[in-house]
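hiii, so i know i said id send this last week but things got crazy w the move. better late than never?? heres the sequnce for the chain we talked about at the cafe, plus the structure i predicted for it. fair warning i was half asleep when i ran it
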Amino acid sequence: MKKFGVVLLLLFFYSSGFSITTSEIRDIMEKKVANVEDALSLTASLKSERSEKEMDLKKSSRLSSLKKEAKLDAGSLAIIAIEFKKCDGGIIYSLTGWSKYAAESLIHQKIFPRYFSWNREISGNELIEFITALKEKAESPKK
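okay and structure toks below
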């Protein structure tokens, strides 16, 4: 059953316009703990006019403060998603820039599960699932 899920995810990424290869996706999925660079590359691979126009990595002090080789936690992943304009950040996150409040913003938007802790490490498989959820959110009609 797990192999079937992997095949479905690979087909989804392949058919949905991601600029990342299937071998890179497979490598990320096999990691017990993903790193920040994996999340940056996957999030950047999502095709979106809004993010391309509004996001410049050099201008984002919050993204440039993340160490690419560091282990990925839910707070860092939330910062990446918010700064790439894939999700909305809350007021407290906007004021502080803290990863804790970035993760709480995504919990409030029901992107992260309710029980998620901001310092919880994210596996490669969970990262792929999260990016897939972001892609689906971007393609769903606005309410």
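btw The chain has one domain: 2-139. thought thatd interest u
miss u guys!!
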